[in-house]
Write a structure and sequence with these properties.
Largest sheet: 5 strands, mixed
Oligomer: single chain
Number of helices: 2
CATH topology: Structural Genomics Hypothetical 15.5 Kd Protein In mrcA-pckA Intergenic Region, Chain A
Helix content: 10-25%
Number of domains: 1
CATH class: Alpha Beta
Structural class: alpha+beta
Strand content: 25-35%
Radius of gyration: 11 Å
Shape: globular
Length: 72
């Protein structure tokens, strides 16, 4: 299975922003709600911090969709 990649423009991206940028959430608010409900995991572990810093090499999963974060 090929996991889509998101290319960082800096060192990190906030988790709620990443969900919006890759289309897993329609807005930052919806992304925050998904995180609060426990629907998001980072590297296979549930993540409840809305603004967790996601860095290159990490994989984010939400409702069965995955995205791998890569350096620019």
């Amino acid at each position: 299975m090929d996991i889509p990649e998101f290319r960082l423009r800096g060192e990190h991206v906030a988790l709620c922003d990443l969900l919006k940028l890759v289309g897993m959430a329609d807005s930052g608010g919806q992304g925050k709600a998904l995180i609060a409900r426990g629907a998001v995991s980072v590297d296979g572990r549930p993540e409840l911090r809305k603004t967790a810093k996601i860095r290159a090499g990490q994989t984010v999963t939400c409702h069965g969709r995955h995205v791998r974060v890569a350096a620019s």
